[in-house]
Amino acid sequence: MTTTSSTTSFAASVLDPIRAIVGERGIITDPGTMQPFMESWRDGWVGRSPAVVLPDSAQALAAVVRICAETRTPIVPQGGNTGLTGASQPHADGSEIVLSTNRLNRIREIDLDNDTMTVEAGCILANIQNAARDVGRLFPMSLAAEGSCQIGGNIATNAGGVQVVRYGNMRNLVAGLEVVLPDGRIWDGLRGLRKDNAGYDMKQIFIGSEGTLGIVTAAVLKLSPLPRATATALVAVSSPSDAVDLLTRAKGKVGDRIITFELIQRFCIDIARRHVPDVPDPLNDVYPWYVLVELADQDSGERLAGMLEGILEAAMEAGEVLDGVVAASKAQADSLWRIREGIPEGQKREGVSYKHDVSVPISKVALFLDRANAALEREFPGIRPFSFGHLGDGNIHYNPIQGEDGDPAEWKARLGAVNAIVHDIVVDLGGSISAEHGIGRLRIDELPRYKSPVELDMMVALKMAFDPHNIMNPGKILRLNGNAR
Amino acid sequence: MTTTSSTTSFAASVLDPIRAIVGERGIITDPGTMQPFMESWRDGWVGRSPAVVLPDSAQALAAVVRICAETRTPIVPQGGNTGLTGASQPHADGSEIVLSTNRLNRIREIDLDNDTMTVEAGCILANIQNAARDVGRLFPMSLAAEGSCQIGGNIATNAGGVQVVRYGNMRNLVAGLEVVLPDGRIWDGLRGLRKDNAGYDMKQIFIGSEGTLGIVTAAVLKLSPLPRATATALVAVSSPSDAVDLLTRAKGKVGDRIITFELIQRFCIDIARRHVPDVPDPLNDVYPWYVLVELADQDSGERLAGMLEGILEAAMEAGEVLDGVVAASKAQADSLWRIREGIPEGQKREGVSYKHDVSVPISKVALFLDRANAALEREFPGIRPFSFGHLGDGNIHYNPIQGEDGDPAEWKARLGAVNAIVHDIVVDLGGSISAEHGIGRLRIDELPRYKSPVELDMMVALKMAFDPHNIMNPGKILRLNGNAR
């Protein structure tokens, strides 16, 4: 790609055959038009590419991959391009084509008695949620990017979100897959089954593999009954440890009616209120920690609210809960959610922050916060702890913010050191350095520090077995053979 | 193993080093004492082996595997030996050692706030259920062999059972694994996390791999809240199609409170009553089909029974349900379960039967039964349809019984032909030829007929990546390179 002749040869051997398959509508080579596909919406990943290819069928996509396989042209699969780890943008050297699923956007089938929906990879998550709701079902995957992320990317990253405590990760919501393999063959695994032990469950390897083993082109999704009612509360607690006790209490009383259980540090609310309009201060007094809890059920809203109130009253008597409010209306519930949703936006405007998407066993969350806060405050005086997230599944967005004083550039330079301190503690407590966002390029150099040689070897063995020429999203998750990718 | 000198050399190079690791208590070579490890409790699988090895730790088990890897000695991993597909017994040529997890039977840890339990592979399923119940939790895996099957085998076969409609398969209940790989290294993946996207989720490949990729030595299991109440009913319906309508109705009304939804053909009840004591005829009249439905919840038993009655009344008004009984006591519920549980035993005594463990999309169950029954009756007049199973997850035990007349030996010889007719229809409807039992040896020669070349290639690639010398449970699930194993 560095000389005119190699560019010509690349065009003749790769781009022209691809153009013959996808047509002029299916390929973009104009730099300006390509730009949105080259960069991430956050975190500054920017790359270059000779072409963005947008096939309109799995067959066309497979034919494109075959050309890439024959010519050893590396591919970056891309869905809604909303990821947070640099996995869906090309590298800066411009050697990779971007293969977009934007035009694979049909809902192929809804099977009501089977509670499944067959969708193509480019369907927007929110459209899938709405299509399910239109037929009286729930597709429970829900996350901030749902208006633009695509289901193929949700599957490739095993997306999480705010309802994992009840419905599990994306892995749990997939019954079947259609995948284009790195050699360009199509695997039709679009089975809508709850039980299938006929050989290895091959779909599992593609879920969460960040496009490094193949490209998901369609999926059979599992639908759930649509809850008839929800009940929402925001309560104050004096510590994360009390929040865990409240969670354990609530699970015992209402089990899987808990669809959301979010822990929020007071400082997060302050920051959201400082920078984002209409974020309320929910209670009359100020408390150190809060929990946003939501229940959902087929039973009546009154019954559900009564159960929630019962739990909170008992928790207040036991001293776990200091104060709280149960939403009396949809508007009031939305207002409580506004607090939670305002946090990431507020944080962005407050200065340098150190983002971590970590999980530990729920029983270790309080200990993790204590240890990480103490270690960082010791090392970087003035750093401000900032923690919120999905306590119900042990996933904390632990995002401390720079001190009020000091040079932002200096604070920025500390990112790697902060990550190392936090991640060392996480792994020491049996946790994960990436709970839901994946590894991509963001954590690729940290992974070898936190995975055993045995586990890394297994990951490499899997990659080599399915993509021996390393053309599928190279340099994401793993570097092979000590190479840059 | 065929000459004295090779036997001597095998003893010196393999058995003596193994004995040095596990001690005399950890190795059995006496044929009589080995016999229970050589044969299946049902279906007649019998093999031979030079030794049964019973390590008492993952470390010792790994050391044994290292010796086998170095000497290319094939291994049959064995748990409770309750499988139904010949996966856990050695082949007849006596070349494989049996590696038993019987002595890996400790519960290592229970983490109440994290709702997890860390167990060794040899723990009996019922002991795990009881240990969970003792601390106020539910471990929801439940199946007929629970009194003797081991959790390692449940994981290796991705066990199903009667509560999958609510809690999922074994895969859904595993948070982390410890596995000894075919080269004898130990992978410590014992993480108790609900969210972990730090690289490929390697535990997924071992779950359901029937011991062909490695040996599970321990697992972190997910626990659930213990339901406070259950409600059980047996209802009569005129067709499987009406049973599906009832299921859809019930899911809409009570969602995941449904823990069991079993379809039962009338003839199954007749056969159970003919051969098994104390199986009641549940209703005053005789109906063609029945459904055993059970709900469980944290709410009160009265509330739950009221919900169940409400569903059944509405279903009767809609004509989906013809008659039914809601159990008024634990004893009455047990008596209804006695019907379901008496079926396999009754069937065994009625003559030759053709067992199938198939699944189709729930929406296709009625069509499957119609087509399969018609095809078999056309081909084998007099054959008696006999169907029951887990309608809630599309898994039907479709086990037609020989005609009342004819030579049993002739009926027996038709097994392959019956399997082919049934499985062709299953796969044509998007189903699986093994819903929960696995492939083992029973279905190994059928798998290539029903899996695409692409899928078979992927399975072989995975096997070769992890067990290139094919020492781990060879000749189960797959034959490699056209070899017998």
TrEMBL record, chains A, B:
Question: One Pfam family from the UniProt entry?
Answer: FAD-oxidase_C
Q: Which InterPro entries match?
A: FAD-bd_oxidored_4_C, FAD-bd_PCMH, FAD-bd_PCMH-like_sf, FAD-bd_PCMH_sub1, FAD-bd_PCMH_sub2, FAD-linked_Oxase-like_C, FAD-oxidored/transferase_4, Oxid_FAD_bind_N
Give yes or no: UniProt keyword Flavoprotein.
yes
Q: Name one GO molecular function term.
A: catalytic activity
Cofactors required? FAD
The entry's keywords: FAD, Flavoprotein
Which terms does the UniProt entry file under GO BP? respiratory electron transport chain
Q: Where is the FAD-binding PCMH-type domain?
A: 45-226
Q: Does the record bear Transcription regulation in its keywords?
A: no
Q: Hey, which family's this protein in?
A: Belongs to the FAD-binding oxidoreductase/transferase type 4 family.
Designated name of the protein: FAD-binding oxidoreductase
